[in-house]
Amino acid sequence: MQPPDELMSDLFLPAMRQLVALRLRSQGLSQSRIAQLLGTTQASVSVYLSSAPAKAYSALSRLSVSRADADLYSARLASAVSRGAKEGVGALSAVWTGILGGGAACGAHRALYPSLADCDVCIRAYGGQAGAKAQAVSDVSEAVRLLEASPSFVSVMPQVSVNIACAAGDAASPSDVVAIPGRIVKVRGRAKAMLTPEAGASVHMARVLLLAREVRPEFRACINLRYDGKIAAELKKMGLRVLSVGARPRPASDDSTVDALRRRLESSPGRFDAVVDEGGSGIEPNLYLFAAGAQEVAALAVKLAAARSAG
Q1: Do residues 30 and 85 both lie within one domain?
Q2: Cα separation of 68 and 56, whole Å?
Q3: Total-model pTM
Q4: In terms of residue numbers, what domain contains 103?
Q5: What is the CB neighbour count within 10 angstroms for residue 42?
Q6: How many domains does the chain have?
């Protein structure tokens, strides 16, 4: 058997450990703490820190990973391992399966085993929608970290709590949209995700996002927030274009927000960055922000919360 796992253990993992170690050191962490976060020995960390990163970049280039991508991956992994071992494994898995699914490691794999010249197992297993879902999970995980770190984000959380959704690849159904099971709730004055993100976790948020993408396909993520006069004023100051679906006397279906948004988009959608559901009988007003990715929409939500709190 000739699995690509050898490339992970021999090339990818050592190189990424060195780049992550260097990044963590630049943040002021000690060698012992870095070793603990990376799950390796302090002696190994000492070698990583005393060696030039050129060897790591060279090893990654054999997997068709550019220096820019390597720096992006190391930043993502450094952030993930700092939050815990589970988060680190999840982020590492998402990056590695993305490389495999995109065919980037095929050249190095075939160089080791010429008999695999026509192999496309990894692309079929991790490419397309499977790989896209892994990337979406990683994106939402990072977005949640931004929300949880914000001291003012709770000021824009509605009574129904918050969720953040990210479309994976060419998402066509709620099962292709990653969100937080159980939502993001208030715990001791801060936002806290109940569980880790997964595909199909929020049918409602998925429907809102997929519907918006019919008009604005560049949108890949959305978040729901509270809506009031202060937030309306801040949206205007930030230059965000708002589409309102209007108030409703009573719920007409199990998801009246989606029904109302669909009717609004069918009439005259225009261009928009956010959707305001003014609510109604039994429906809390909500704001839905959209962006090209989960981290982008989370950053926008944090900015809005900070501006509202300051005002």
Answers
A1: yes
A2: 13
A3: 0.64
A4: 5-126
A5: 13
A6: 2
